């Protein structure tokens, strides 16, 4: 096998995610820069009739929450509007009814699936909205989680946003989604367990440690304010994966206070604008990672927001192994995002 | 919230994967049938010059293994040819050199990344090859794993195939890939641990139980022979996810004997042809799940092959949670595959 040595240039690195223990291959030799990815900018919205526009309120299930300038329930005049998903992945009524089926286990698909319509402006993208508008979207997130968590059947509430068809968005009108689940998803449990292990060993929150480490090292830092740190994580699974972490320790997103949400709005907006500029308006997903809703405040878990631009295709290797190959070292991604100028 | 009841039709089901404990949402109400997916058939290969064709052997690194009718090393005349990946994700030379970096852990990206060129015929797809030809591909898998596992640095060897651009294939010439890793990937470890837990409790292999259960129930059974069972798994993450399981308990793929490989070739070929017919030549990934290579034979783990047609986009929800929504119940997928006629 010695003959193969000449095909090895710089060795890639295997990096371990400190929270979950997941190993990731970070390519160092043929590192991909922003221009190396095949660009597929998310096209600008088209002006067709949409159930999320003013005047189409009757096309959605009745609204659960709205912030309004005028109008009554299910009328135009809202700024942010939350409705049940018309085609929900889970149903809100009924009992969990855990039961066996042969050797297997199942339960009824009880949960909530809501859509947060972020603006009446069909033609906007999240990054086009004002800070104030995004702040209201975040308030809607907080309000809905706070309401739903009183239903003790729900053990986890996921807040996420798919932008662009490649990221799984089926409607172009700006919106986020919320799914309340009767079980704690496996990846979430792993993250919580990993953070707890670290805490048991060190008596410190691992996310607080990461924030300190990254603010000091600086190489993976995108930006920071008094309240937030934005980084390209050390063991990023995806090129330009970006995390927004609150500096103050808090396990549950829904406990965030007004100044935190105001600052998060600024951070989220500027981070997406940076990604848009460096990667030419990529499709992306973001997900709020927060502690299981029925848990009391946790010393060892720390909510944060993870943004994943959709630049590469996930292939058999990743599905089969949960082992990712990231062609862009996070240090390079952070540098591009740090240096890009915003108007 | 009672007002929402009318938007709930049949409740979806939450099903638990018996091996890993992962919960999956299986839609029952708006179940997607094959015609409901947006078809994107993998286009037929184009006849352009390719480094995997006869006469281009010098464009790849020197071959590691070949089955030939004629010709010498790195000459035309081969039927199956294995070469190092010219752009490997990992390098074969060097020490692991485990070390810290601040609070983080890393090691050198030591491993092997090989390409199994399945045929000199650029214009073929795997399903076009003869049973004999696919059998030789499987022999190449077995030989390469058996050789590489003697290198004690390698703890896991992944065999996988990406078909079609949507599934991550960057070259259209029929090929599979092998990656030897110095760590056991997280998803693999979870599967092995889950199977061990079941064994500790029941003193039986969970995969052997699944095979018995599915052959008896029949509702998720696609086909079976003396040696193999093909099923749509109970908690399938993806529509038309299909598993091929050997009936005889064996933990390591590379221990499969000649009659097993011959029968697997038949099974794999007919299963992919069924998927091609029902789903109109979809992009797909398949992955061989096998025990960690340095382990002795395991009573509790059972190698198998998982095929995932690429029909849906994985969105933020799935990334954030490891929690999948499958719009096609496996019972329906199995029925379509069972009933499709092959010439």
Short description:
Two copies of one chain form a homodimer. Chain A has 343 residues and is α+β, with helices and mostly antiparallel strands. Chain A is 25% helix and 22% strand.
Task: Describe what this molecule looks like in 3D.
Two copies of one chain form a homodimer. Chain A is of the alpha+beta class. Chain A folds into two domains: about 190 residues, 2-Layer Sandwich (HIT family, subunit A), CATH 3.30.428.10; about 110 residues, 2-Layer Sandwich (HIT family, subunit A), CATH 3.30.428. Chain A is built from six helices and 15 strands. In chain A, the strands form three sheets. Chain A has a ten-stranded antiparallel β-sheet, sandwiched between helices. Chain A has a three-stranded mixed β-sheet with strand order 1-2-15. The radius of gyration of chain A is 21 Å and the shape is globular. The termini of chain A are far apart. Chains A and B meet through strand 1, strand 2, strand 6, strand 8 and strand 9 of A and strand 1, strand 2, strand 6, strand 8 and strand 9 of B. Strand 1 of chain A pairs antiparallel with strand 6 of chain B, so a sheet runs across the interface.
Order of helices and strands of chain A: EEEEEEEHEEHHEEEHEEHEH
What is the global morphology of chain A?
Answer: globular
CATH domain fold name of the largest domain in chain A = HIT family, subunit A
The total tally of domains of chain A equals 2
Tally of DSSP helical segments of chain A: 6
On the 0 to 100 scale, the average pLDDT of chain A is 91
Main beta-sheet strand count, sense and barrel state of chain A: 10 strands, antiparallel
Oligomeric status? homodimer
């Amino acid at each position: 096998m010695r003959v193969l040595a000449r095909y090895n240039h710089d060795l890639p690195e295997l990096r371990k995610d400190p929270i979950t223990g997941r190993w990731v291959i970070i390519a160092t030799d043929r590192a991909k820069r922003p221009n190396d990815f095949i660009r597929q900018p998310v096209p600008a919205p088209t002006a067709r009739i949409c159930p999320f526009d003013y005047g189409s309120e009757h096309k959605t299930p009745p609204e659960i929450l709205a912030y309004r300038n005028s109008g009554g329930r299910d009328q135009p005049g809202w700024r942010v509007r939350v409705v049940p998903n018309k085609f929900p992945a889970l149903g809100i009524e009924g009992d969990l009814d855990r039961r066996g089926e042969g050797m297997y286990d199942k339960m009824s698909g009880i949960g909530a699936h809501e859509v947060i319509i972020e603006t009446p402006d069909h033609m906007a993208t999240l990054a086009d909205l004002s800070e104030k508008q995004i702040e209201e979207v975040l308030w809607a997130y907080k309000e809905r989680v706070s309401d739903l968590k009183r239903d003790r059947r729900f053990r986890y509430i996921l807040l996420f946003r798919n932008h662009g068809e490649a990221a799984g968005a089926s409607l172009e009108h700006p919106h986020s989604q919320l799914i309340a689940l009767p079980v704690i998803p496996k990846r979430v449990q792993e993250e919580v367990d990993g953070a707890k292990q670290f805490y048991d060993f060190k008596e410190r929150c691992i996310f607080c440690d990461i924030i300190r480490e990254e603010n000091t090292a600086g190489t993976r830092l995108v930006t920071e304010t008094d309240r937030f740190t934005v980084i390209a994580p050390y063991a990023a699974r995806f090129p330009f994966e970006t995390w927004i972490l609150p500096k103050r320790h808090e396990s549950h997103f829904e406990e965030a206070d007004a100044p935190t949400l105001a600052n998060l709005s600024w951070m989220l907006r500027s981070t997406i604008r940076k990604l848009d500029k460096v990667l030419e308006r990529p499709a992306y997903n973001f997900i709020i990672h927060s502690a299981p809703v029925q848990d009391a405040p946790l010393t060892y878990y720390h909510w944060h927001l993870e943004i994943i631009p959709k630049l590469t295709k996930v292939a058999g290797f990743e599905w089969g192994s949960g082992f990712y190959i990231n062609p862009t070292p996070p240090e390079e991604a952070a540098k591009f995002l740090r240096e890009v100028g915003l108007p």
